[in-house]
Design goal:
This protein has 252 residues and is of the alpha/beta class. The protein has 9 helices and 11 strands. The strands form 2 sheets. Strands 7-6-5-10-8-11-9 form a 7-stranded parallel β-sheet, sandwiched between helices. A 4-stranded mixed β-sheet has the order 1-4-2-3. Helix 6 links the parallel strand 6 and strand 7.
Length: 252
Amino acid sequence: MKVDYLYGIHPVREGLRGKRQPLELFVDEKGAGPRVEELLVIARERGVPVRQRQRQDLDRMADQTHHQGVVLSMEPFPYTEIEDLLAEWQDSGKTGLFLLLDGITDPHNLGAILRNADAAGCQGVVITKDRRCGVTNVVDRVSAGAVEHLAVCQVTNLARTMEMLKKSGFWIYGLAAGEKAQPLFSTNLSGNIALVIGSEGEGLRHRTRELCDGLLEIPMIGKVDSLNAASASAVALFEVVRQGLESAKQNK
């Protein structure tokens, strides 16, 4: 069976608490501080075997030396089917917030975006099987383990997924700059919203742009004319959150 390895205090903690099955927790045989002791308690509560290993063994499993003395073996990351994601959202009765990624290829960007998505309460993130980076241990570490609590879908056809979301009652907005884009902060983002983030270098593909209900532009006041994908996702996601909180206050 294929095994994934998570490393570092935060990713391992969330791996032990997350939705997929942890297999074994490996710790440095030379001892551990209070943060590692906390992981040992969580592992015992969940019935996860704990093994002591030499530092070089941990280096090999993590494929690097910056693992903070802990490595967790896991079942492979379980991608969610888009149909299951939509069904789960509909059953929840909550307003929908999904994030669609149109070709993110850098694992550090993907990890940061997934951390943003979890923090903003996204019910799911959709990535494409081609032109993209999947969920790896690097992605998990950069997300600080947030990916362990997210539903992530891999789809072969992003356009078809966007059509499915529209039929389910979502408004789809792509982040882009240009004359057809409307200002993010003056756009009504209430209701079921799906935000689309383009690739690091090329942005949104032409077909993706065409299928969006609208394009949103983040106002840039300084000297640079754009944000990277991870930063742009945070700004847009939390604008949706802000508007939702304001609407909830007004409806009380």
